[in-house]
Amino acid sequence: MHPNQTRLDHFYAAFARLDADAMAACYAPDVQFEDEVFTLSGHEQVSGMWRMLCEATRARNREDWKLSYSGLEANDRRGKAHWEADYRFSAARRKVHNVIDSVFEFNDAGLITRQRDRFNFWSWSRQALGLPGILLGWNPSFRTMVKRQAEVNLENYLQARRS
Hints:
Blueprint: H1 3-16, H2 20-24, E1 27-34, E2 39-41, H3 43-60, E3 66-74, E4 78-89, E5 94-106, E6 112-118, H4 121-129, H5 131-136, H6 140-162
Parallel strand pairs: 1-6
Antiparallel strand pairs: 1-2, 3-4, 4-5, 5-6
């Protein structure tokens, strides 16, 4: 197994345990992350997002948490993974099954420098947000509103950690 594939296995095994510190150790200082909700730069933001999500899941929704992953592939520069997460979305307490495909880039030290997660936003929003997600999840303006709220939540979380 390529060392970067081992890194991805370590990352997802840590995520399954909700161990954000072990996840953060997989990232380079200048990491870039993007998914349907977040666009983040730097170790503080990216690892902060995972810490925020892991802490919220441990605190309120641990019994509903399940993560499975497969299709890990990696070479010296790139990698990919497929993962599925079952959880209760904290804002609405609604159950979600999210299916995600990730692509990665690595530096020479084998740390993740870029991660791009893709999932169906409308499918996610229907599950996580109920009727508003059903009616508006396809709308770019609604997606922008969800992204802005996520950014505010993350910034508030990071500010509290700095204090």
